[in-house]
Amino acid sequence: MSAASEVLSEEFEVLESIYPTELTRVSDTEALISVEPEDGTPHQSELILQLRLNYPETYPESLPDLSLEVVDGELEEVEEQRLLEGMRSVGEENLGMAMTFTLVSFLRDQVASILTARAELLEHEAMEKERLELEAEEARTKGTPVTVESFKQWKQRFDRQVEIARAREEEERLKGLSPKEREEFKKVAARFTGRQLFERNRELATSDSTLVEEGTVSVDISQYERTAAEEQAEHDEDGIHLSDSD
């Protein structure tokens, strides 16, 4: 048995006592070691790796060939490469000495760091989401500050909406009238200002709703609106003439 083989054999005996369940000897020069973070590492997901070590004949003067396999959880390719590069760097610092325990310890620490960073990221995202929700709620409850310009814009939109609603209301009212009644309604409407017509329509609407609630039949008074001249003309046609002597 070569000196290198004797060093590796003795190292395996030590490793088996340290990792009784984690270590699997594949051959005299190859081993598998399961690696997971220490208990108490803050994480919300599992990450268990299996480290494969192939020892060259020149070990420990040369680095073992290292590879990783994911047993549980997820590991991004960039994370895997960072772990392997880190272990090789640590191995370079320990050339000439049994280094397996040092490599495994480094890997375990790095796995814990990865899980801690993931947990912190999730916590940060949750806090940021909560902050944005609070800001949105505050903005909703506070409302938009009113300026002279914003009030003018709102007033223009409001007046326009009122005009549209008024036009629709008048159109609906005219649909139920005869041609003669429509003309009379237009004449009456022309004598009111826009605000007066709006107030009048609102009063009529209130009056109508009151009548409906009381069970009274609603009557369109426009059907009975006549000027004094029209009434006099009808009396003349009927041939009715009254004098003081009568």
Automatic annotation (TrEMBL):
Gene3D superfamilies: Ubiquitin Conjugating Enzyme (3.10.110.10). Transmembrane segments: none annotated. Residues 224-246 are annotated as: Disordered. Pfam families: DFRP_C, RWD. InterPro entries: GIR2-like, RWD_dom, UBQ-conjugating_enzyme/RWD, ZC3H15/TMA46_C. Residues 10-114 form the RWD domain. This is RWD-domain-containing protein. The lineage of its organism: Eukaryota, Fungi, Dikarya, Basidiomycota, Agaricomycotina.
